[in-house]
Amino acid sequence: MADLAVSINGIEFKNPVLTASGTFGYGEEFDDFLDLGHIGGMVLKGTTLHARDGNPYPRMAETAAGMLNAVGLQNKGIDYFITTIYPRIKHYDTHIILNVSGSTIEEYVGVVEKLNDLEKIAAIELNISCPNVKKGGMAFGTSASSAEKVTQEVRKAYRKTLIVKLSPNVTDITEIAKAVEGAGADSVSLINTLLGMAIDAEKQTPILSTVTGGLSGPCVKPIALRMVWQTYKAVKIPIIGLGGIMNAKDAIEFFLAGATAIQIGTANFINPAVAVKVVDGINDYLERHRINSISDIIGMLKV
Amino acid sequence: MKEVSDFSVQKIEHYQDNDFMLYVNPINKKLNQGKPGQFVNILVEGSPTTMLRRPISICDVNAETNTLLLYIKQVGDGTRQLAQLKKGDNINIVYPLGNGFTTDNVKNPLLVGGGTGIAPMIYLSKELNKKGIKPHVLLGARTSQALSLKNMFSSIAHLHITTDDGSEGTKGVVINHLIFKEITTFDYIYTCGPNAMMQAVASIAQKNNIPCEVSLENTMACGIGVCLCCVTSTTTGNRCVCTEGPVFLSTELTNFLIN
Ligand SMILES: Cc1cc2nc3c(=O)[nH]c(=O)nc-3n(C[C@H](O)[C@H](O)[C@H](O)COP(=O)(O)OP(=O)(O)OC[C@H]3O[C@@H](n4cnc5c(N)ncnc54)[C@H](O)[C@@H]3O)c2cc1C
Ligand SMILES: Cc1cc2nc3c(=O)[nH]c(=O)nc-3n(C[C@H](O)[C@H](O)[C@H](O)COP(=O)(O)O)c2cc1C
Ligand code: FES
Fold this sequence. Notes:
The complex is a heterodimer. Helices cover about 30% and strands about 20% of the residues of chain A. Chain A is α/β, with parallel strands linked by helices. Chain A has a single domain, classed as Aldolase class I (TIM Barrel), CATH 3.20.20.70. In chain A, the strands form 4 sheets. Chain A has an 8-stranded parallel β-barrel, surrounded by 6 helices. The mean pLDDT of chain A is about 95. Chain B is built from 3 helices and 16 strands. Chain B has a 7-stranded antiparallel sheet with strand order 4-3-7-1-2-6-5. A 7-stranded mixed sheet of chain B has the order 11-10-9-8-12-13-16, with helices on both faces. Chain B has a two-stranded antiparallel sheet with strand order 14-15.
């Protein structure tokens, strides 16, 4: 057995495989399919200060090797999370990270203030990159100055580990990464979904109710890898890589490009037990290459 | 409990309307029989344009032979690929999913199925048979060719038919059938099929104060309640069709309400 443990800002993950926000619910939905104790951690659904009903149906369009979604952050709000969901999931033997979203800085701060004392929430992932909400969301993540500002304010209000999730819908992701690093982020995760659209040619209408939506799945992997690699060279804080990871081989590519941990998103829809398979596959890879520890391959791309 | 299981194809029967019946058995496992109205999510292999699983209703189960029956119509790449399956092939299925129909305290129900929505009516009729009820089933189709499953109802239900072109049964859409003249003799209605058909049926049900369960077929990504892509608008906000449905009371659904 290779050493799969990784550490991000002092949080020890038993392995580097996490599950991505919005694709893993609150973890409990996967009880029938896998043992959550076998994955490094899970990032929960995007949570906002107030309940949101999300966008109208249709919210999903399948595309070549991917899918577009326009869910629009449907969730019951932070108070419901704390009183109803948190007590149900806090027993899981894995790290729990809450994905936090908002339309204004005050909303982000309002949510994170309530999370300081939730013992089992190891970290928050600040979603400044959701393409599916009209106000705020992605807007914060597409300019270095607004990304810096929201990170600064959240940093002041939140004592534990702060991960900022970056948008790929930018010209230069390293600028944003450096800005949030400077503003006190402990880690960055990337990428969120890419803005895209799908059209029904027969009906001559958009497929999504919102016209545009966020692209995910295998088709985004090359872009995600490129951005992880660029960011790895630009910042010192650990990177969590995601985007199109379907199996252990994909995950290894992200480690080589510089990710300390990875997240699995869309792949959970296709095989709800995939996260554990990826953990096993990473171990097999390391053993096959006679590498003792996952840390030994992070950023070790031979260029 | 839900599971991910490999199934082997026992048989595939092709019908006349680009539709087919797939008979599959779980490999080295006992079939989870689920309940009528529940569905399975099939991984389609060999179609480059099909990444997500395809949801298909449980049409019937045969506990003795450990077989699950799935009735599928070819409408796109995924279902066309499934139509290529041969005896002995394997497919991967996540199941059983969704809530299913409720059959408690029902005495004289009417079942209305159209298109592939006919499929779950078979398993539902059999469940009602177990309670001593031989239900009235009304099937609607474009033409007699699209009624591949009608013989499966012969011993389990009183069958009624409408076709758009009049090639079989009453000519017209389902609500043109005379059975709706006696609608008040029914205490419960179940319907599955195209939305326009279900809306027409539900509106008659609501006018006559008869509870009506409708089974929705929203497009899905995960099928297990985590992506929130499949929601339908209800009187209590957007709800997941894959976990809180696919079966809803028509009065819960905002676009099924009559004013
Ligand atoms: C709960 C549930 C139960 C179902 N049960 C059955 C069943 O028993 N038998 C059966 O044949 N089909 C059933 N369906 C529909 C079936 O899932 C779709 O026909 C299938 O996913 C289409 O896949 P495809 O790749 O062949 O077509 P695609 O290429 O995905 O689509 C082809 C065309 O059909 C349309 N389409 C696809 N899915 C849907 C949908 N869900 N609603 C409306 N339009 C759609 C697309 O917009 C497109 O125009 C069910 C769906 C759900 C959600
Ligand atoms: C249906 C769906 C919902 C999502 N919801 C969120 C969310 O609430 N917050 C967030 O930060 N990212 C969300 N994402 C983005 C994913 O976490 C991930 O960044 C993206 O899908 C790329 O990874 P993948 O290709 O492995 O899916 C969502 C993605 C999908 C497909
Ligand atoms: S299909 Fe994902 S929540 Fe229903």
